[in-house]
Amino acid sequence: MSLENLASENLARWDAVHEARAWGRYPPEELVRFVGRTFFAANARPSLRFLEMGCGQGANLWFLMREEFTVAGIDGSAAAIRRCRERLRAEGLRTEPPHCDLRVGDFARLPWPDGSFDAVIDIESIYANAMETIRASVAEALRVLKPGAMLFAKMFGTRTSGAGTGKMIEFGTTRDPSIGPLSGHGIAHFFTDSEIRDLFVSFASLQIDWSRRGDCSGTEIFEWVIQARKQP
Fold first, then answer.
1. In sequence order, what are the beta bridge partners of 100?
2. CA 209 to CA 218: how far, in whole Å?
3. 3-state secondary structure string, 165-198?
């Protein structure tokens, strides 16, 4: 099966997941900390624009809008975007531009002009692709950031349970890991430290942290926590 067909199959699978059930209610602690440290002292919050790549059902956009930032979100799943709109409206938040701009689309071809955003975030979304698409998505994130603006991302590392299982598509990328948190969720790329550094080489600065947790079943989740700044 070609990578294009795999991507289409993967997207259909995620659309079915978002159609079938709720997925995510609250933002991760690391994102809250990043926003707090970087933006909470800012004046005129509505003038600051955030883009989330892979916004899903809106947990992170909900948090950002409650903190009075302006947001945009893109996801390949129409069901996810529909549920995102429903959630934001249920919370009394506006879901139309200029307050909130939600699109069904492709991370690797963002529909916004250069220098549109003060921050771009990816919370474990672009990992669900082959590296060609991942690289294109990061390049697009760099393009739409304003000079000196920042990207924040969480990406699964190779210490995560299930890395290397399933059908190998390319180095680090598998289809249907047989165990772990990504089991049953289609294409997954598990990143090494050197891959992260190479992926963000075009940014002016890069800070890499990590988070590691497990559960009683023995599953381990290792996540790279990334902050990258565009050249001023």
1. 71
2. 23
3. CCEEEECCEEECCCCCCCCCCCEEECECHHHHHH
- pLDDT for 181 beyond 80: yes
Please name each of the domains of the chain with its CATH number. 3-229 (3.40.50.150)
d(CA 163, CA 46): 40
CA distance linking residue 100 with residue 147, whole number of Å: 22
User: In what side-by-side order are the strands of the sheet with 167-170?
Assistant: 167-170, 173-175, 187-189
Give the whole-angstrom CA distance, residue 33 versus residue 120: 15
Q: What are 142's two structure tokens?
A: 């760099």
pLDDT digits (tens, 9 = 90+) for 55-68: 999 999 999 999 99
Q: Give the helix/strand (H/E) hosting 131.
A: helix 131-144
Answer whether residue 185 shows pLDDT above 90: no
